[in-house]
Design brief:
The structure holds two protein chains of two kinds. By secondary structure, chain A is mostly beta strands. In chain A, 9% of the residues lie in helices and 25% in strands. In chain A, strands 3-2-5-7 form a four-stranded mixed beta sheet, with no helix packed on it. In chain A, strands 4-9-8-6 form a four-stranded mixed beta sheet, with no helix packed on it. In chain A, a hairpin with a 2-residue loop joins strand 2 and strand 3. Helices cover 23% and strands 19% of the residues of chain B. In chain B, strand 6, helix 5 and strand 7 form a beta-alpha-beta unit. Chain B contains seven helices and twelve strands. Chain B is of the alpha/beta class. The chains are: A mainly beta, B alpha/beta. At the A-B interface, helix 1 and strand 1 of A face helix 1, helix 2, helix 3, strand 4 and strand 5 of B.
Chain lengths: 161, 313
């Protein structure tokens, strides 16, 4: 806005100020600006209300988080039963294995990912950096899956007899 | 529209005249040392005179990712604490503070405990939240709702009125298939929620994932947002504030203005810049410039909210 103030600088300062005062008093109508903080109305029938109350003591820094990642393990090299998660992609995106194979996914990103079957037949927890998730396929078929945090990430495991 | 018009509310034509005049006040505002870094729209929008208390003023923080460990930010709890202190140092008490999601990084109970405790350090009467997809990783948002869902409806959505403004908090991080998703129950809630409101009620909507198509390839959009926004079409002022993308971005579509907020944790690439929305590790000393907080104010009679972005100090 300030870049578009045109020739206003040519106005006498007093005139601008006067105009602004008139403007402010005129435009605000008869209603003065509220002095206290406005109150919140959560509507009828609300016994419990959303949100919480601030305390104002910002020094209340909590304890650091404990280690996360349910199954952290050294990153494994991609093998015939392995899927790597790198750069927000499953690699290989399509894996074919015989029935009874245990497939292990390893997250190599800093971002957490999950492995969630489209039919919900398997569902990993959130995988932090270098965390792994394994699932044993006991039936034949084609199993599409996504990362539920980044659902644009797709993969498929084809299980053959 | 005329039947319920508030006598203190300007018509659009009055607003145009008003805005034309208000250029002078903005100059005074700037001359007084108050630099407004961003005001949405153009001729129809104007900022309030700096002297009067706005009708409503609040702060937005987002994407704290408590529990993140990585080179992009070695101490997300530290930068989040700095953001809280910066809100507390604004020089006034915000009417509320909204955290637009990704409170935690991995949805663990410890992380929820920690971020909740940290939020209570905010000096404000009300703290509101919406969940991010990092807050609902493997349980449909159950742990999020245990920590922050009191008094909300459905999967955690809610609405309230403050200072004549109607505010809606939405949940669009559940049941994802590619993009953000609201779902039939929540759409129904929105439709019924706004039905009794007069069309000149200013509407503010919070969500984590953008309600506009910022970059669908990376999931930066919501697949049924068009339906939700159709319920808001008749309102003269609709503002949607979101997080998720860790960067400032503003877009106007018809009567709706969308403002993506930044993060207190780590930057993400601009849309399409690189293969994936991976955390960016900046050179030493540059991180704070990519993080920040947002002040939002509304003055009765004005169509657009005034936004002021502050980088983390």
């Amino acid at each position: 806005m300030s870049r578009h103030h045109r020739s206003l600088t040519a106005w006498p300062v007093a005139a601008v100020a006067a105009a602004a005062i008139l403007l402010v008093s005129g435009c605000s109508g008869s209603r003065p600006a509220p002095q206290g903080p406005p109150s919140v109305n959560f509507g009828s029938g609300a016994r419990t209300t959303p949100g919480m109350t601030g305390g104002g003591s910002a020094s209340a820094s909590a304890a650091p988080p404990s280690a996360t990642g349910s199954s952290a393990a050294p990153s494994a090299a991609a093998g015939p039963n392995a899927v790597n998660i790198t750069n927000f992609a499953f690699a290989p995106a399509a894996l074919t294995v015989p029935v009874g194979t245990t497939v292990t996914w390893t997250n190599h990103d800093e971002e957490p990912h999950t492995v969630v079957a489209n039919d919900n037949s398997f569902h990993s927890p959130g995988l932090g950096s270098n965390a792994t998730y394994s699932y044993t396929f006991t039936t034949a078929g084609s199993f599409g899956y996504i990362c539920s945090i980044h659902p644009f990430m797709h993969g498929t495991v084809v299980v053959t007899r | 529209m005329t039947a319920e018009r508030d006598p203190h509310t300007m018509t659009r034509r009055q607003l145009m005249r008003h805005s034309a005049w208000f250029g002078a006040a903005v100059v005074l505002t700037v001359a007084g040392g108050e630099v407004i870094s961003h005001v949405a729209g153009s001729a129809e929008t104007a900022n309030a005179a700096a002297t009067a208390r706005p009708t409503l003023r609040f702060a937005q923080i987002s994407d704290s990712h408590i529990g993140f460990t990585g080179t992009a930010n070695a101490n997300v709890a530290g930068t989040f604490t700095e953001a809280i202190n910066q809100v507390n140092g604004l020089g006034y008490t915000p009417d509320f503070v909204i955290h637009t999601g990704d409170l935690t990084h991995l949805s663990t109970p410890d992380q929820f405990d920690q971020v909740k405790q940290m939020l209570t350090g905010l000096n404000t009467p009300h703290i509101f939240t919406v969940p991010g997809e990092h807050d609902s990783i493997d349980d449909g948002g159950e742990k999020y709702r245990q920590a922050f869902g009191a008094g909300t409806r459905g999967d955690g959505w809610y609405s309230f009125d403050i200072a004549g403004v109607h505010i809606i908090g939405l949940v669009n991080t559940l049941h994802l298939t590619k993009l953000g998703h609201l779902g039939a129950d929540q759409l129904d809630f929105i439709q019924k929620d706004v039905a009794p409101l007069s069309s000149d009620t200013p509407i503010i909507v919070f969500s984590h994932i953008p309600l506009f198509a910022m970059y669908p390839k990376w999931g930066w959009g919501t697949n049924d947002a068009t339906q939700a926004l159709s319920y808001l079409k008749r309102f003269s002022s609709v503002t949607c504030l979101n997080g998720h993308v860790h960067q400032l971005f503003t877009k106007t579509e018809g009567n709706v203005t969308f403002h993506s907020g930044t993060t207190t944790a780590y930057p993400l690439p601009h849309p399409g810049d690189g293969p994936a929305p991976k955390p960016i590790t900046l050179p030493a000393g540059k991180l704070h410039d990519a993080l920040g907080i947002r002040e939002v104010s509304y003055t009765k009679g004005q169509q657009a909210l005034a936004l002021k972005e502050q980088t983390l100090q």
